[in-house]
Every structure is written in C-alpha cells, then in structure tokens.
Design goal:
Oligomer: single chain
Distance between the termini: 92 Å
Structural class: alpha/beta
Strand order of the largest sheet: 10-9-8-11-12-13-18-22-21
CATH topology of the largest domain: Rossmann fold
C-alpha cells in the first residue's frame, strides 16, 4: 500500500489516459462515425497528451482522492471540458479526421469516466469503514449530536481512520429539515428530545456533543438530556479550542461540570487589555493561587515589560514560573517570596521594581477556617490589603485592582466582612491618591483551591458520601480563565473608585452540581454514591448576592461587566476602624473580634456563639 501511495499520481494518469481512449471509442460507436484508423490514432494520441497536460495545469493530480469533495470533482470535469475544446481547436488547425461533435462527446464521456474512477477508488479505500459498520464487534456504538459541519467532519475522519474504535449509528439535530437525511450514509434519527429513546433502541455506548458553536444555554440543555442516558458523554470544545491542526476526533473529551453551566463565551476587548498591560511592570499578589496564577497566564499573553509573581507559598509560585518559562520564553518574570503582612518587605519590592499595575489577589478565602480564626483573616485580608494599597499609593502605581468576592455583599461570615472592609479601604484611598483604586467582585470559581468541585471529586474517588450542606443552597459559578479575563477587562475600564461586578449567569444549586458530578464520574447518585446533607456551616448562607440594596448597576462596554454605584466612604471612619481592628488583635474571644468587625461593616450579620444561643433558649 505504501508503494502504491508513492506512485498513485502516475497510476492515476495512466488510468485517465485509458479513460480518454475509451471515451473516444465510445463516441465513435455512439455517433456511428466511420473510422479512418491512421487519422483516428493520431488524433487519439494528441487528445491523450492534451488531456494529461490540462489535468496537470489544473492540479487534478494534487487532489487527495480520500478526501475529495464536490469542488475537486467539478475541477476535474471542467478540465475535461477545456481539454475537449482544445482538441476541437487542434483538429481545426491540423485538419484531422472526425467531426467536432465527436470530440465534444468524447470530452463529456471522459469527464464522467474520470470522475467515476475517482469515486470508485474512494469507495475501495473506504471498504474497511464499510466492513466496520457491518461487523461492529470491538467498536463502540456512537451517536453524534449535531449534523452540522463538525458532525460532517467527524464522520469523514472516522471514514479516513478505520482504526478509531467507534461505529457511528446515527446523528441528532434539531433542524427538522435534516431529520431522515443522510451524511455519508449515516441517518439523522431525530432531535434532542429523542436522544433517550434512540440510545435505548440503538444500544448506544457513547454520545458525542458536536455543536462547537452552541450557546451556553443550548449546550447545557442538550447535555442535561444526554446525561439522563446510561451512555458515556463526550464533547467537542468550542471553535477557538479546536484551532490546533490536530484531527477533530482527538479533541473529543469527557463532559466536565463547566460544560453544564449555561454560560456563553467571554468576549474581550483585546486592544484595551493590550494597552493596559503591554510594556508595563505588573505585580500579582497571591500569584501562585488559583486566580493569581491564571491572571499571570493571561497577563503574559499581552507582553508586559515585566511580570512580578508575589506569593508566600513558594511551591505554587515556582509552578507558575516554570509553566510561563515554557509558554513564554521571552517573558521577563520574577518570583518574589513575601507576605502581604510584611510592610517593610513590600516597600523594598515596590522601590526596587516600580510596578505600574497591581492585581491584589492574595487573601485568606476559606469561609469555615476564617470563622475559627477571625484575627488571621483580619491580619491577612484587611491589613495585608492596606499594606499593598498604601505601597501602591506611595510609589506611584497607575492602577490597583482588588480581587473581591460576592461574599462581601451583606456578609454573614468573617471572610466576606473582611473583603467588604477591603473595598472600603481602596475606595477611601482613591479619593486622596493619584493611583486609580478599583475592586472586582465575583462569585465562586470552578476548580479553584478550596472550591467545592475538588472536594466532591475526592469524595467520589473514595466511594462517597458526597457532602452537601443544604439541599437548596445555591452559588454563582464561573471558570478560572473566565474570571481572570474579566478582571483584566474590568481593569482596562477603570477610572478609579469603582466596584466592578461580573455577570455570573444563573445561580446553580450545589446539590444539582453534586448529582451531575457523580453522573459524569460514571456512577448513579443514591445507588453507587450517596449524597449526604450535613447542615449549613458557621457563616454560610443559602444564596449569595452580587450587590447590596443601596448599590445600583451601571453597564459597561462589556455585557458581562457592570459597575456598582458606590455610597460615600468617610476617610476618618475608615481610619478609626483600622485602629479598632488593631486593638481587637488582643482579644482571645472570637465572638468579640467579630463584634468589632460587625461595628465597622454594618451589613455584616454575625452569628451568635453557640453558648450565647443556648442561654437565650434557656431563658
């Protein structure tokens, strides 16, 4: 077969020459023209040479027959028409025997025969695929959801690669005009609502979602239907993810929880972000964490003058440093091992590197742990933010972006309350500094350190149970890259003093998330893996909010980014509050510390300590 491939062009040229001869003979017979052999043979010789030269000129022998489409067949037929016209001209010039109608008919017959040979060749090459569809032992029965371009390409690749262990048994499409039609002999069996019945009737092993252009809501709805079956579910990612030159089948992957979120792709103003970052010295605190490291990846794309990765935990900082060295070998970067609590060290860093842009992502974020140690949350979140922000002010940083959270809105926990006070600090500083201080507020990030997804995955891997605090608890979610990209876009809009709120889409029930994750792992909820309701933890509320009642939203150029209408921040009150918090460090009673925090963040709802609550009940 390898030798045949090397000489395929020459073999095809010989076959074409034979087809020309047969076409000319057929034209003589069909038109009942008497043959003058001497003249006819000369004309045949000239015609064969003419056809082969025109075929070469039109690039007919450069086409891959295995992947020939209508375009290639039209080019071949058009080359035959041009060749026959040239033969008529040659007959007129050299006065060979035979009427022009015979030459024109021979041209049409040549086109039919040459295209027929190519189609036959392709059929012979594809016989292994046909055999696979007759004998499916060892192959997984595949149902493709989407009869558009992607579904078409997948079937073509499966035809070209008979060793891929899938047998396509049908297609699904919501376009009613396509139902009943066939692509390469594969029938469109129904729409999305027919998926469960078709899977059962056709004994489907694997479902492939092949609509890369589907919006978030349609994607989620169809994948929800697919997950009701007992089949493995795979997806093709979005168009941008597939531009890599690899065969489309290699992009197949298992469905992730991210696929089930009804979120449309983020659209960025890359020009604005480029102006923000390009050539600048950019500092990312908490640069080794989930959000911080993704911010570093996104920043590196826009060619900063230098990227400073600051983190107290050296292992994570080292990991992102090594990753960026591979992805962006020309990037100037520096890892700085430091704590945001260490004011003296921060002063050294700002003096030595003079950043013009600061993304402050360093913080304690784990809600239950911060309930147990509120003083540590205050030290790291509030005073750490104060240290970095005041250094930014003193050293002339252009923009300072605080990474905040939806838990800062009407907080019921220490972490949220400290983040709200951080927002107040940077809004106060913005009124008396040349630095533009802003905050970006968003919800939970899928896959981040401490998020619910890794916890569920560990619980599933150990056989369960999966623990959910309340059956009705809901949260907003977005992916790590999406959050980082929107943070940078918001920063490019910042003029100072704003709190940006990211559109988190529809809230998701944590219980539903657990059910879907169990299904995606190949188990049945309640039968294979139990879901256990454990009760709300200290500081945890059923649902999160993205803004307070006093705040209103103003749209920006990006449909996913809004600005809250901030209320007045009194500088003296903020400074007095900081003094009170410093005094609170001497308290050993956690509830007393929380009370001080509650006096400063008036929207903070503090849970009473268990002892106090018990006394009230007794009374």
């Amino acid at each position: 077969m390898h030798i045949l491939g090397r000489f395929k062009k020459y073999i095809l040229a010989i076959v074409d020459a034979i087809m020309v001869a047969l076409a000319y003979g057929g034209a003589y017979i069909f038109l009942d023209i008497p043959v003058v052999w001497s003249s006819a043979l000369v004309m045949l010789y000239i015609s064969v040479v003419t056809y082969l030269l025109v075929f070469l000129l039109f690039g007919v022998y450069n086409h891959m027959i295995s992947f020939a489409s209508a375009r290639e067949y039209i080019i071949c037929f058009f080359a035959c028409v041009v060749s026959s016209l040239l033969c008529c001209a040659e007959r007129t010039v050299f006065r060979f025997f035979g009427p022009n109608r015979q030459l024109l008919l021979a041209g049409v017959l040549t086109g039919v025969l040459c295209i027929g040979v190519r189609v036959l060749w392709r059929v012979v090459i594809k016989l292994p695929f046909a055999r696979k569809h007759m004998d499916v032992s060892g192959y997984k029965r595949l149902l493709i959801v989407g009869a558009g371009d992607a579904g078409h390409m997948i079937i073509r690749e499966l035809i070209a690669s008979p060793n891929i262990p899938y047998k396509v048994i049908g297609l699904i499409d919501d376009d009613q005009s396509k139902i009943g039609c066939r692509i390469y002999g594969i029938k469109v069996l129904g729409d999305r609502h027919a998926i469960p019945q078709i899977c059962k009737a056709k004994r489907v092993d694997t479902l492939l979602f092949a609509i890369p252009t589907a919006d978030g809501e349609a994607r989620r709805e169809i994948l929800d239907i697919c997950n009701r079956t007992n089949c493995q579910v795979h997806v093709l990612p979005g168009i941008n993810e597939m531009i890599s030159g690899k065969p489309i089948v290699e992009h197949m992957r298992k469905v992730s929880v991210c696929d089930l979120l009804s979120r449309d792709p983020v659209r960025l103003n890359n020009e604005a972000i480029g102006e923000l970052v390009k050539g600048k010295v950019v500092l990312v605190t908490g640069g080794g964490g989930s959000i911080g490291s993704e911010l570093c990846r996104q920043i590196a794309r826009y060619q900063p003058g230098k990227l400073l990765i600051l983190d107290i935990y050296e292992n994570n900082a080292y990991d992102i440093q090594q990753e960026l060295k591979v992805l962006y070998p020309d990037l100037q970067q520096r890892v700085l091992i430091a704590s945001v609590r260490d004011r003296e060290r921060l002063e050294e860093i700002f003096e030595a590197h003079k950043p013009s842009l600061v993304f402050h992502a360093a913080a304690h974020k784990h809600v239950p742990l911060m309930e147990s140690d509120p003083r540590e949350a205050i030290k790291n979140n509030i005073f750490g933010t104060l240290n970095v922000a005041e250094c930014a002010d003193r050293h002339g940083v252009k923009k300072f972006i605080l990474i905040s959270t939806d838990k800062a809105v009407n907080p019921t926990n220490v972490m949220g309350a400290t983040k709200r006070y951080c927002e107040m600090i940077i809004q106060d500083l913005n009124t008396r500094s040349k630095t533009e201080f802003v905050a970006v507020r968003f919800g939970n990030v899928l896959g981040s350190n401490g998020s619910v997804i890794p916890l569920f995955q560990r619980q599933i891997a150990s056989g369960g149970p999966v623990t959910v605090t309340h059956k009705e608890i809901t949260r907003f979610f977005m992916t790590i890259p999406e959050a980082a990209q929107l943070v940078m876009q918001a920063a490019s809009y910042a003029a100072g003093g704003e709190i940006f709120v990211l559109d988190m889409g529809e809230p998701v029930k944590i219980y539903d998330l657990a059910v879907n994750l169990i299904k995606l792992s190949g188990y049945k909820p309640g039968r294979d893996i139990e879901i256990k309701i454990t009760g709300l933890r200290p500081g945890e509320k059923l649902y999160e909010e993205l803004m307070m009642e006093e705040e209103g939203l103003v749209a920006t150029q990006n449909e996913k980014i809004f600005i809250t209408q901030p209320f007045a921040i009194d500088s003296a009150t903020v400074q007095e509050g900081l003094a009170k918090l410093e005094k609170a460090f001497t308290e050993t009673d956690n509830y007393a510390v929380k009370k001080v925090l509650g006096e400063l963040v008036t929207t903070y709802s503090i849970d009473q300590p268990k002892e106090a609550a018990d006394e009230d009940v007794m009374a």
